[in-house]
């Protein structure tokens, strides 16, 4: 358990940051799910639009430290290839 004032404050901050990061990660997953659903429906235009909406959200997660840069790039790359293959 936290004893010093600094460690108590750090514990409080960690709880707050966890909530923020959890919400951000959930938001990213929602955007990715929309792309997956559009790909599954076979509609390339919808999939392309969903990918264009998801890409900045993923990269924002990178700048906020929720997702690693290479992970985000890999996800975007693989989704883009699948969207392109629909055509």
UniProtKB/TrEMBL annotation:
It comes from the Bacteria. Residues 1-23 are annotated as: Disordered. GO terms for biological process: translation. The keyword Iron does not apply. SUPFAM superfamilies: Ribosomal protein S20. Keywords: Ribonucleoprotein, Ribosomal protein, RNA-binding, rRNA-binding. GO terms for cellular component: small ribosomal subunit. One of its GO terms (molecular function) is small ribosomal subunit rRNA binding. Transmembrane segments: none annotated. HAMAP family: Ribosomal_bS20. Belongs to the bacterial ribosomal protein bS20 family. NCBIfam families: S20. This is Small ribosomal subunit protein bS20. The lineage of its organism: Bacteria, Pseudomonadati, Pseudomonadota, Alphaproteobacteria, Rhodobacterales. The gene is rpsT.
């Amino acid at each position: 358990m936290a004893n010093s004032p600094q460690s108590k404050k750090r514990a409080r901050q960690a709880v707050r940051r966890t909530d923020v990061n959890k919400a951000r990660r959930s938001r990213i997953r929602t955007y990715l799910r929309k792309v997956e659903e559009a790909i599954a429906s076979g509609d390339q235009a919808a999939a392309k639009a969903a990918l264009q909406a998801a890409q900045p959200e993923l990269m924002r997660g990178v700048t906020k430290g929720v997702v690693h840069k290479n992970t985000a790039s890999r996800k975007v790359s693989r989704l883009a290839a699948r969207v392109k293959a629909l055509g």
